[in-house]
Design brief:
Layout (H helix, E strand, L loop, with lengths): L11 H51 L11 E5 L4 E6 L14 E7 L5 E4 L2 E2 L2 E4 L5 E2 L11 E6 L2 E6 L2
Antiparallel strand pairs: 1-2, 1-6, 2-3, 4-5, 4-8, 6-7, 8-9
């Protein structure tokens, strides 16, 4: 009768092979994970900006101050800290992102590393007339571009306004 040798556990070489393969898989998944995070942040910024534009247009169309058709009835402002806010005209004046006039209707933030540009220039303001159209009347520092570029590092997305 032959003796049967029972082996238990793993050998050191088997253990090292498993650790090496695990390390390779982990190292290759880290860049993929960071790409997913950037993509999710970009989607979040896209959604928040689209939502903000919708609220600004709806506020402008409501035109509670019965403004002339060329004056801004609402403004969408983007601060240096990537805080989005929608202002509407009130009895004290037209909405102004730099002057702080207007009544705040809505506010939200987007990821801090998000850049929003149009034709290579950073966006800080968009004004909408009572017809819901982009305007620069009494709002000269604001953009009237209808194509915005959102980017986080090398990830980019285009957002068409209206």
């Amino acid at each position: 009768m032959a003796l049967v040798k029972l082996s238990r556990g793993f050998s050191l070489i088997e253990l090292l092979v498993v650790l090496a393969v695990s390390g390779i898989i982990l190292a290759s998944s880290i860049p993929l994970g960071s790409h997913w995070i950037k993509s999710a942040n970009l989607s979040s910024a896209d959604g928040e900006l689209s939502h903000a534009i919708g609220i600004a247009v709806a506020t402008a169309l409501r035109n509670e101050q019965a403004l002339d058709s060329v004056e801004p009835a609402a403004a969408l402002c983007l601060s240096d800290t990537n805080q989005l806010s929608v202002l509407e005209a009130n009895t004290s004046g037209l909405p102004n992102c730099t002057g702080g006039t207007g009544t705040s209707v809505w506010s939200s933030s987007i990821p801090s590393n998000t850049a929003i540009t149009a034709n290579g220039n950073d966006i800080s303001c968009m004004c909408f007339n009572p017809y819901g159209q982009l305007t620069q009347n009494s709002c000269s520092s604001c953009t009237i571009e209808t194509t915005l570029n959102l980017s986080i590092d090398s990830n980019q997305r285009v957002l068409n306004v209206l």
